[in-house]
Amino acid sequence: MASSALPLSEVKRWRLPSIERWAAIVLIVAVALLQAELAVTKSINWDEFFHYAEINAALQGRSVSLLQTPYVRLFSWVPALPGSEIDHIRLIRLLFLPFEAAVAASLFLIIRKEIDRETAACGALAYVTGGYVFLHALALRSDTIAAALLMVALALASLRAPKPWVLGAIAILTALATLSTIKSVFYFPVIGVTLWLKLETRPRRVLAVVAAIAVVACAIFLLVSPALMAQWFGPGARETQAMLREAGVRMFPGKLLPQPSYLKWQMESAPILAGIIVWGAYCAARAPGLRKLLELSRFIPLLGVAFYFNAYPYHYAFIMPPAVIASAPAIQAIVRRYGSISVGPVLFLNAAILSLHQDRGVIRRQEDVISGVHLIFPQPVTYIDDVGIVAFPRAVNRFTSGWGLADYRSQGGPVYLRAAEAEPVPLLIDDGGALDFLPGHRIAEKDSLLPADRAFVSENYLPHWGKVFVAGKRIPAGQSALELPIVIPGLYTLESSPAEIDGLHHGVGDVVRLDRGAHTIAGPRAGETLLRWGDHLPRPAAQWPQQPLFTDF
């Protein structure tokens, strides 16, 4: 018994943690609280509104892609809770904390095995507090979910022998990550090289390389063979294939550094992390033998910013962890020179400065707009907008900008008009994108809706409150009768001037039901008459916010 007891110094070390350990724990808790506060007060990005709208669309029985939407199934229970759209997105952001913790923990465990505990702790802290990672790791997107799955897979590959259960777990995790986002392929080389180096004999390594080449070759063959893919996987495979091809063209446009300003800001907002990465790349290039292959493979996800079109701020939370692991020797040198007790607070200060520079007034304006829409329409109605800012059914579940607009224009048909012909769409919110062609805005032809849809919107909506438009018609003054086409049926309130509709006289303030189709307006008419959808729809007392509703991510 005596021989198995720990030395007294070792007992004290475990029972009475050093100041460095307590400092590390305090900093981890402080960063978590700082990020949680930011999750509640930072403005909602347009992507987050769109992804929350996808959750609601699935609940409403509307079509939502199974690919790249893990949040739809994970958080489908959130909309049923009390609170507004903003409250629900805040909650989901907080629920991303465990995913970020899984990324940081995996990073810590790998560095701890390869270097030491202090270096691992500072590496994890450098990642979490590093620029866009700190600001966007909790955003309602697929990135942090996929990063957590892939980093756990990488930790298994790094820390465990390649036994069947380990390989099976890695396969499942990488498959789930790929379903979460196609850009998970950036992690495949580092996971593959890590496993390959674990194989002890040359024949096994050759067999692994051949298997990997065969898998890639089959995927490429199916991608370029529409008939075969449709025969094997059914008619829906053609749409999936088209989506993958389109994504390939847009994700990799052949332009070097497609988003240079965001890379520049990431380096400026996390200078310590940027320096560590540069130093780490130098160390990796000088690593001996096969170790160099492993270390350089860890930089592949980060190198994607050189050609990946969507290298926007949220992307950095996804791509940084393997590069931080590869940069562990640089972190170790800094920790040995200055001590973790000095490095940790500096990293925390970086995050605190980033937090202080966030405009917390934007989310309040977003709340005001959403509250105003709910005042106008207490019950959900189908609507058109760019991002899905309210949790009502969307007539067209796409952006009116970026990829969504390009895909819409490639179809060549009046998608919005057809949607309104399928169901009443009494609400339109001009919150960005191609809808900015509405009164008071100018937009280039290539960035606007197609002519038929522009005509539909211009002729069937009236300004109601700020950038909120409701279905409506303008009946011009005149002597002769005319036909008034109604695309959006429902109750309409007469404003400005009386009119005779379908042989019945209606005064100002009267409410008339108009079905879809043509209606006869008799003459003469002394002035312009407005027909506004709804029974005297209210208007919020507050003015529409004059300052922007969104920040640049």
Q: What is the helix fraction of residues, given as a range?
A: 55-70%
Largest sheet: 7 strands, mixed
Q: Per DSSP, what share of the residues sits in E-state strands of 2 or more residues? A: 5-15%
Number of domains: 2
Average pLDDT over all residues: 88
Query: How many helical stretches?
Result: 25
The shape, in one word, is elongated
| Residue runs with pLDDT of under 50 for 5 or more positions | 1-16, 232-237
Derived structural class: alpha+beta
Rg (CA only): 29 Å
Alpha-carbon distance between the two ends:
61 Å
The count of β-strands is 11
Written description of the protein model:
- This protein is α+β, with helices and mostly antiparallel strands.
- The chain folds into two domains: 18-356, no CATH class; 372-533, no CATH class.
- It is built from 25 helices and eleven strands.
- It has helices spanning 8-15, 19-41, 46-59, 70-74, 85-95, 97-114, 117-128, 132-136, 143-159, 164-180, 188-198, 202-223, 226-233, 236-251, 260-269, 271-285, 289-297, 300-303, 315-326, 328-338, 340-356, 361-376, 402-411, 415-422, 451-460; strands spanning 383-384, 427-429, 461-465, 468-475, 482-486, 490-495, 499-501, 504-506, 511-514, 517-521, 529-533.
- Strands 1, 2, 3, 4, 6, 9 and 11 form a seven-stranded mixed β-sheet that branches. Strands 5-10 form a two-stranded antiparallel ribbon. A two-stranded antiparallel ribbon has the order 7-8.
- A hairpin with a 2-residue loop joins strand 7 (499-501) and strand 8.
- Helix 7 (117-128) crosses helix 20 and helix 9 (143-159) runs parallel beside helix 19 (315-326).
- It is elongated and about 90 Å long.
- Residues 1-16 and 232-237 have low confidence and may be disordered.
